[in-house]
Each structure stands twice: as structure tokens, then as C-alpha cells.
Amino acid sequence: MSQLKLSKDSWSSQTVFIMAAIGSAVGLGNIWKFPYITGENGGGAFVLVYLACVLLIGLPVLISEIALGRSGKANPIQGMANLARENGASKLWVLLGFNGVLAGALILSFYTVIAGWAFAYFFQSLFGVFDRITATEVGAHFDHLLANPYELIFWHTFVTVVTVLIVSRGVKSGLEKAINFMMPGLLFILLVLLGYSTTTGSFGQSFDFLFSADFSKLTWESVLVAMGHAFFTLSIGLGTMMVYGSYLSQEYSIVKASLWIAFADTAVALLAGLVIFSIVFANGLEASSGPGLLFQTLPIAFSQMTAGWFFGTLFFALVVMAALSSSISLIEPIVSWFDQNWGIKRVKAACILGFIIWFVGFGTVLSFNEWQDIHFIGERTFFESLDLITTNIMLPLGGFLMTIFVAWVMRSKEREKQIELSTNKMKLFLFVLKWISPVAVMVVFASNLVAGEIAIAMLGVAFLMYAFYAWNVSRKI
Ligand code: PHE
């Protein structure tokens, strides 16, 4: 036991932990990604599948991941090594940690590019670019931004540097402060926008689009996207919640915290969706216009509403902050691994990683201009391929392995110590963890195989083989 490496930092209270976890969960995934993938995948039926995934897969994985973190008491890689040893399982479980660390870095490489767009919009809004702008002009403005790789690289660099600076300062001083006023601010402004959207005349249509399900529009690939998004939006499957859990003291309730995180995250996404689609329908825009949806709609609202300049600038400032509190959580697993296992100090670790991520991010920048016709996986651009591999494959795979570990490998005494539930609720939880969540992940992967999405399927199968290998070995020991 003496050589176990343990986390030294800890949260100053349960509320601070919940706020930081919500800060990680609520980000571009809710405000930018959820609306645009919902638009691309036809609305209601997709939303329903996504909500089912949050409840039946996301929530159990979230609880499991925080529990693994608090029990393993370290970064995802070392934490899994600690857990494997304590529970008499194979060392191969560290692969789960590596999968997450890699996914986190890759996701961050495109996350900073998109956060860069929000940064650009913040300054433009501040300088009045969106005052009295028409719907057509808003579209052209966005296309203009995307067409210029140098401008995109400038903003991407800006966000990467800010992320590195915050991460360098450490969990407590870096994270705790910003989050306390950011979340209430974001909620406030979303409510203001919700008020505006009821005046557009298309609120009802937006509501119907999000909540009336037409399953004929759903494909297995949409189901994969919905499931992947449940992981992405809750920040699970890659170890973020594991590191955050490793800083959590024993007396706090993981189940209660998880319920709050899932609730807040889902509420923000649905609010953002309602607002954005009201603007889409009121202005005759395309719901399926893709990653630009947020940026092509909201400026229209700000140009029309009272005090639009003020609300617009504030809104983009908050989007940037929401993005930053998520981006720092994406590299926290790696930074803490560098720190705890390799003795590389935070500042240095953050700089090295920042550089690599910045470089990989060029691929995403170019996907929207110079490389837009270059395809990587299937018909997908670099950005779309990266999103597919990380969000839709690596995260569900990571989550799948976490449920397997907590349900089958972890000693029940330790499990009950971490996840405090009454006997009946524990039975239900374990049933879901053993038979629903992992099976659902496998079914979605397998269906994509049957549906003939060969590239996705091959990746899925390869990962599943590796998952089973790790599991099988762990049982023998
Ligand atoms: N949950 C964040 C969002 O929705 C993204 C994220 C994913 C952050 C995974 C950390 C880990 O924007």
C-alpha cells in the first residue's frame, strides 16, 4: 500500500465540488453541440433517445466514475492501478485510464477551436458588430469567420493559452472562484433569452420540434450520436469526474451530487435548444445547418431585443466561461497524471500539453476551410472524424468499462462505502449497472455494425474486443 500515489488536493466543500462538476458538465456541449446535433438528427425522437441515455447510461456511469475516483484516490491511470490492486484485478485496467486521458486531449483540441469562435463573437458583440444586423448578414458573417484559417488559429491560440494559465494555477485557486458566479449568470441569461423566444411567434414550433418524437427520422447512427452526446455533455467516460472525485472527501454523497449534475446539465441543454430553435423557425433558417447553428441564430435575437448589445456581450462572455470551465476539466486528468506519476509540475505539464493540443487543433481549424473536402473516416472531415472517434466511441467505451468495474470487479464493501444507497435502491442500481448500461452501449455499437456503418463498426468492435480482454483477464486474477 505504501507505494500508492494519492491525490493531495481536496475540495473545500460539497457545494464547491458540485459547482466544479457542473462547471465541467455545462459547456459547449449544452449550448453549441446539443442544439446542432438535434437539428441534424431530426429533433424529438433524437432528444428522447438522448434523455433515455442520460438516465439509463449517463447517470449510472457518472455515479460509478466519481466513486471510482474517490476510491482510487488519484488520476485515472494511477487510480485504476490502485483500484485494480485493491480489488485483486488485472493491471490492464490502467488501459481504461489511458483511453480517457487520450480522449480528453483529443476532445480539447477541437473544443478550444469552437470556444475560439465564442471568444471572437464576444469581442464582436462588444464592439457592436451585431447591432441591427439582419438574418442573412448573420449567416454571411459566420461563413466569413470560418473561411479565414488565420483568424480561427488566432482565437484557438487565445483559448489554449487561457486554459493553460488556469490549469497551471491548480484545482482550488484556478477553478473554484470563476465557477461561483458563472453558473447563476448563465442560467439568468438563458431565462432572459427564453422570454425573448416566446415573443418570436415560433416558440410553439420549437417546443414541438424538440419534444414530439417522430421515430421514422431516427437511424442507428443518430442513436450512436445521442448516446455519445450523453457522455460528452456529462463529462463522463474519460476520467474528468474520476479526478474530481479523487479530490472529494468521504463524507459527501456521490449520488446526491450526481443527480444535481445531471439535472443542471440537462436543463441548460433543453433551454438552449428551445431558444435556438425558436429563432431558427422565426427566421426561416435551416435546423440542420450544423456546427454553426448557435452562431447563426443568437446574434439575430440580440439585434432585435431590447438591450441586445448588453445581453449579447454578456451571453458570449458566459459561453466562453462555460467553455473554459469545461476545457480545464478536459486536461485535468492528464495534468494530474503528469504531476502525481512523473513529478512534472503543473505549470510545465500544462504548457507541454497545451502545445500538443494547440497543434492538433489545426486539423479542426482547417476542416472548416482548406480541408473541408478532405475526408478521413467515411465522408467525414477531420473534425467530424475526431468527434466520432472520441465522443461516440472512446467515451462510451470508457463508461462501459467503468460500469463493468464497479458492478463486477469492485468489492461490494468498498462499493457500498462509496455509493450510499438503501438496500433496495442499491439492488436497482446494481441491476442497471450490470444489465442495462453496458448492454445498451454494446447494442448501439453492434447496431451500427448491422446498419452497415463499417468504419464506426470496426472501431467499435476493436474497442469492444479490448474491453472484453481487460475484463476477462481481470476475472482470472
Ligand atoms: N461536458 C462538456 C460540455 O458539455 C465537455 C467535456 C467532456 C468536458 C468531457 C470534460 C470532459 O461542453
Overview of the molecule:
This protein is an all-alpha fold and 477 residues long. The chain has one domain: Orthogonal Bundle (Hydantoin permease), CATH 1.10.4160.10. 78% of the residues lie in helices and 0% in strands. The chain has 19 helices and no strands. The protein has helices at residues 14-25, 28-40, 44-72, 76-86, 94-126, 135-147, 149-168, 171-197, 203-211, 220-234, 240-246, 254-282, 293-304, 308-342, 346-367, 382-409, 412-418, 423-450, 454-476. α3 (44-72) packs across α4 (76-86) and α10 (220-234) packs across α16. The chain is globular. The model has no long low-confidence stretch (mean pLDDT 90). Phenylalanine binds at residues 24-25, 27-30, 107, 232-233, 235, 238, 240, 326, 329-330.
Distance between the termini: 18 Å
CATH architecture title: Orthogonal Bundle
Bound molecules: phenylalanine
- Strand runs, count: 0
Q: What's the helical proportion of residues? A: over 70%
The H-level CATH homologous superfamily, spelled out, is Hydantoin permease
